[in-house]
Amino acid sequence: MPFIETTADADIDDEIRAMYARQESHWGFVPNYAKVFCYRPEIMGLWAKLQSGIKQHMDKRRYELVTFAAAHALRSTLCSLAHGKALTEFVTQQDVQAIARGEAPASLSAAEAEMLKFARKVARDASVVTREDVEQLKRHGFSDAEIFDISATVGARAFWTKLIESLGVEAEPTLREMDGEFVRAMTAGRAI
């Protein structure tokens, strides 16, 4: 149960029902995070638009790498699990665990390793990012637009993790039932 009460099934209005239906059509169920948006379903719609706007400029691998690094640096176990699992489409579970430890496994290019270093720094404390950090990304081939996309991905993840973590959203059963070693490695903050 989240820290706040959610709308009882009998009290769900058309706007909430539509939001839940969109989530269910995408995931096959209504995720726990969606339920805390029952008071502001329009915010869920805005979040979807923001995510779509950010993702359209990045390939899925880059998006998942940056999102995972940000989620883990922001200490969101829920997001680390979800995006760590998504990242296994591109790298092994062992490599995801290595990334969680701050390592750069061989499955990452030098540019990707530098990108993750930058993403973690932005997530932990954006005020300490320097021009040299950005120049280092450029030396690895990133354009100004791509650097913007990386920072936007981290910034959006910060909004999401702060919101769901502060409301005590629980991980879905499918995430809680993952391999125990993997779950332990993804536990960046609150235990599930």
The beta-strand count equals 0
Helix-strand pattern, N to C? HHHHHHHHHHH
Q: Any idea of the CATH topology of the largest domain? A: AhpD-like
Tally of contiguous helical segments: 11
Low-confidence stretches: none
Helix content: 55-70%
CATH H level of the largest domain: which superfamily? AhpD-like
Beginning-to-end CA distance, first to last residue? 12 Å
Q: What is the arithmetic mean of pLDDT? A: 96
User: Strand content of the residues, in percent?
Assistant: under 5%
Provide the descriptors you would attach to this structure in a database record.
single chain, 192 residues, mainly alpha, AhpD-like, 2 domains, 65% helix
Structural summary, described in words:
The chain is mainly alpha-helical and 192 residues long. The protein has two domains: 9-54, no CATH class; 59-186, AhpD-like (Up-down Bundle), CATH 1.20.1290.10. Helix content is 65%, strand content 0%. The chain contains eleven helices and no strands. It has helices spanning 14-27, 32-35, 41-55, 60-73, 77-87, 93-100, 110-125, 131-139, 144-166, 173-176, 180-186. The longest helix is centred in the last third of the chain and has 23 residues, at 144-166. It is globular. The termini are close together. The mean pLDDT is 96.
